[in-house]
Amino acid sequence: MGEFRKLYETAFPILFRVACRITNNEEAAEDLCQEAFFRLHEKNMVFPNPEEAKYWLIRVVKNASLNYAKRKVREGKAYQRVFREDTRKEETGENILLKKETQEEVREALEKLPEKFKVVLILKEYGELNYKEIGRSLGISEGNVKVRVFRARERLAGLLAAKVGLDEEADDKMSGKT
């Protein structure tokens, strides 16, 4: 039981960050992490070393989080269709608004990335895993991880630059500039 506790204490913070970033919901992230540990314990799984167990847990939490996020998007769309709710939130303070808009733009751009790029970027930036750990978690080479992270960052930057360009064009049209 001491090994399980040690694994929990070392892996939980990483798992939580990954799940939280994917789901955008701390409570759900915590529940998904707990479920992963429960599955590990319930199945009495044996790994050659604690690192292998950690990578298994990362895969389980990543997949469960992606499923949760997809389900929430579907539910949100269904509720919007049924109730025609206005989901905009009023915020006060220019800095708070700008920060939220920027976070939303990054989140939207991240969602537009292909799954293989989105996952490595989330694990790298929000899970704070190194390339080797990401490779082991996803079952791909460290070199492949580096390439995917590089390409994901390039695509994300391109999407954000395109968004800024579109926003500037709209601003110019509204102000009468051409």
Strand content: under 5%
Q: Report the major sheet.
A: none
Assign the structural class, choosing from mainly alpha, mainly beta, alpha/beta, alpha+beta, or little secondary structure: mainly alpha
N→C terminal distance: 69 Å
- Helix tally equals 7
In CATH terms, what is the fold-level topology of the largest domain?
Answer: Arc Repressor Mutant, subunit A
Q: How do the SSEs run, as a string of H and E?
A: HHHHHHH
Mean pLDDT: 84
The counted number of beta strands is: 0
Unreliable residue stretches:
none
Identify the CATH architecture of the largest domain: Orthogonal Bundle
Helical content stands at over 70%
Number of domains: 2
CATH class of the largest domain: Mainly Alpha
